[in-house]
Write a structure and sequence with these properties.
Elements: H1 2-43, H2 48-52, H3 72-85, E1 89-90, H4 91-98, H5 106-114, E2 118-121, E3 128-131
Antiparallel strand pairs: 1-3, 2-3
Helix pairs in contact: 3-5
Length: 133
């Protein structure tokens, strides 16, 4: 009877060791795939996982229609002029009126505030912009 229990415990231990070994192999394969992907991205090429599966969505701002980044200075001047003509609007209202992405308007507004070209009242999403007299 004791030998039967020892045999069952030995089999259980063998199975457990194989499971641990399998998880170790999976972890190593996952690490290797991640390193390959990272190295491919650093080199600027697509990895095998990018080309095999569906295209991954890009991060950040969507590209402009003409493929170039907007001229920040022109955009800043355009926003400043609009604020002079239409004071007391939030950044969301400005973006909608000027047909600009609400995320793309943040940097030019920050530049206008830092240059003290505009003043603000309120905080966060309720912040309203006024031309400095």
């Amino acid at each position: 009877m004791a030998s039967v229990k020892m045999g069952a415990m030995a089999k259980s231990q063998v199975i457990q060791e194989k499971i641990v070994d399998l998880f170790a192999q999976l972890a190593e394969a996952s690490r290797a795939e991640a390193m390959d992907d990272l190295m491919a991205r650093l080199r600027g090429s697509a990895s095998a996982s990018d080309t095999a599966g569906a295209a991954r969505p890009t991060r950040g701002r969507p590209p402009q229609k003409n493929g170039r980044k907007p001229d920040i200075e022109k955009l800043t001047q355009k926003i400043g002029g609009y604020i002079r003509e239409n004071p007391g609007q939030t950044s969301e209202q400005l973006a909608e009126a000027l047909a600009i992405d609400s995320k793309s308007i943040k940097f030019p507004l920050r530049k206008l505030r830092q240059a003290k070209a505009v003043t603000t009242k309120g905080t966060r999403r309720g912040m309203k912009y006024y031309a400095k007299p």
